[in-house]
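Recap slide: Sugar phosphate permease, sequence and predicted structure.
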Amino acid sequence: MNNLNPQLHDPSGKMTNTRWFFTAFPLLVLFTVSMMDKANINILLANKPFLTDLGIDGNLVKGTLSSIFLVTYAFGQLAWGFIVDKIGALRSGFIGIALWAFAMVLGGMADSISAILWSRAILGIGEGVLYPMALKLTSSWFPQNEQAKAQTTWYNGNAIGPVLGLPLIAIIASTYGWRESYFILAALSVVCLILFLIMTRDNPAKHYAVNSMELNYIQSNQKVGGTPTTASKDNVKAVLASPMFWILTIVYSSISIAYYGISTFLPSYLTEEKGIAFVNSAVINAGGFALAIVVQVLAGFLSDRFMKRAIFVGGASGLIIIFMLFSLFTANSTVAAVLSILLIGLLFMPAALTMTMLHRVASPEVMGSISGIFGCVSYLIAALGPMVVGLFSQMSGSYNGGFIALLCFVALSLFLSVFLVRKGY
């Protein structure tokens, strides 16, 4: 190995923890701000000045604003997956983050539906770098017995972002205007770009803060627990021929279509059908994401301890179905608010652990490409979620039909999780 870090040759008596502070932490910040960027539209769809200024009318149009992001996000992940494997996570991240910062500036300047659609499309392409980059870094920087904790750490940014962002966006939009929310998020994205470039490197051997003890620990523990180490994991075509890859993709797709379909319209649903005020609906959503942080940390710890992931995915899928059904058919706004918090609290965790299971079928060498294909398929399916809910609600005057349709996908996730448990995942 050609070690570019001189500290590797002068080990101290204590192992460094560079992988957590210099890799997991910047990824956590990136996912936090990226989620604020993408969730911005969910709150603004319940903001009357935003709808009036851009001439947005009808839930199908609202759903399309979320779906266009998911379509470009999907194809972006496919392209970025191969780019990350080709030029590395660091350079790929620089390009992607800069692109999504530009998209937020464009959104703040939008004066029509077409302009905001372009902003959402470019945002999807830029943010498409995140999962291939993060999975590549996790695969390179963390031993297998820490990968679930590492992934739930940075994946928690998807929950922390709305916890901080939803109330903030609602307050900024109500006090100063919706355009200001875009410009503030663009500035935060630039800060993230600088932080990422300073702290992160493609692999531990190249990092200025890693000592030899940490490097040896990472490398000696990346193949444990009976995980296959055959050459098939190093070949993209061989991984794509694996049935387990496609089962994991279907599980992730099923959870993703439910998450994006529900989260896009939940603030509007609480405001329009449950009579909850605009800012309060944002606070309820933020409360759900706060709960999601606790759920993910606990699930990541327990799944690493027992080296079992699928049982947590299946359990969460079952509870999601129960909480959603009770929420739809209660007339009490307080009960609906509590159930919404519980629902959001569980919607995130299955996706993070499903991605962790992906490490069992692909090696670090091809993780960028495989995660790009994985994400592309999943988010193309997820793009249907907001449109399904929007179409159902526009045709029937109620969100119930669309939400129930999404629960069919969650039921599929539950069924496949039982199969994965039996296979030892």
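The chain has one domain: 17-203+211-422.
Residues 17-203+211-422 form a domain with the Growth Hormone; Chain: A; fold (CATH 1.20.1250.20).
(End of recap.)
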